[in-house]
Amino acid sequence: MPRLAKTIIPRIKNSIRNKGVLRTAWSAMLGPYRLLRNYRLTRRNYGDVTPHEFDVRHGVETTKRVHLSDLEIESPNWAYAEGYWPTPPEVFEEALSGLNIAFEDYTFIDLGSGKGRVLLLASDYPFRQILGVEFSKELQQISEENIARYQSAMQKCRDVQSVCMDFTSFEFPSGPLFVFLYNPSSQAITYQLAKNLAEAVKAQPRPLWVLYVTPMYDVFTSGEPMRLRQVKAGAHYALYNNFGDVKEG
Fold this sequence. Notes:
single chain; alpha/beta; Rossmann fold; 8-stranded mixed sheet; 7 helices; 8 strands
């Protein structure tokens, strides 16, 4: 069972400081339900697991799932987040394989980057820079270790960094952006992320791609500038940009 007592009390105190008593009480009512539901869905994946081929090949550890309640997180948005689930490499590679874009012009950003698997996958493409944003310090430290250990003859970008912060407070860098997310949070938080991204592109018009794996919420097409470019059959991922048309596969 996840160590609930380790994380819930500090999070409640932090939430009271940031949100006040009433909003904290509402979150507290929903919190146990969310945590237990998530735990039931994922408990079979805890404990010792066989390392994924990706980890064995590259000398890293990105396979083992981590339940949300086993992480100490300062952000009051912890109650709306999901635990750590690694992105299947084949999904990421399929999504990028058909894109005819100048990767070297883009900064790649993984929002909710966990242990850094997607950062490492992205580094095999010639992106200008690769950034991971993760609000769990424990996961972010693991991602830094993985970045340092990563071994790949295919690696084309070595400017790979990971920062620890809530991605709703992240300021997007200048220049073309390629943004990745793997269903990291609730609809409200994901909507806030989409709003922040739209405002950043409106303030500085530039090319933008969004790769949303396991898309749960249609928040990126609720307004300009984003349009759906491609959707993978079975809803494995959706691909958006601010200059394309829809393709279904």
